[in-house]
Amino acid sequence: xxxxxxxxxxxxxxxxxxxxxxxxxxxxxxxxxxxxxxxxxxxxxxxxxxxxxxxxxxxxxxxxxxxxxxxxxxxxxxxxxxxxxxxxxxxxxxxxxxxxxxxxxxxxxxxxxxxxxxxxxxxxxxxxxxxxxxxxxx
Length: 138
Description:
Blueprint (H helix, E strand, L loop, with lengths): L3 E7 L4 E6 L8 E6 L3 E6 L3 E7 L22 E7 L4 E6 L17 E6 L6 E7 L3 E6 L1
Antiparallel strand pairs: 1-2, 1-5, 3-4, 5-9, 6-7, 6-10, 7-8, 8-9
């Protein structure tokens, strides 16, 4: 299995760059290999999101597009707002993991989000449910 580049964002603001070999949305922990300390097992409840990225550096001059204009249909359109104030727009493939378009009672696990901007450094994002303030479906 191929290792994927990820940037792990913790709920407390810390960031870890490393490689992920396998992860599914029902896992309670994630194992990240980083250059400084080797393999780390991290509880999902400590995280905000896992960003699958093209490069660790990204392009600091590039500003991600935050609208569905010109976006190709790749699933249900959603707007996600995190407790820290950050927000994202993207697509969820498959069924929406909550009822009535809002992120109500589900506080375990999370879901995969495909960013609306395919030019972004982010390929996909695993959004941790406990870090989400609300989600709106379009």
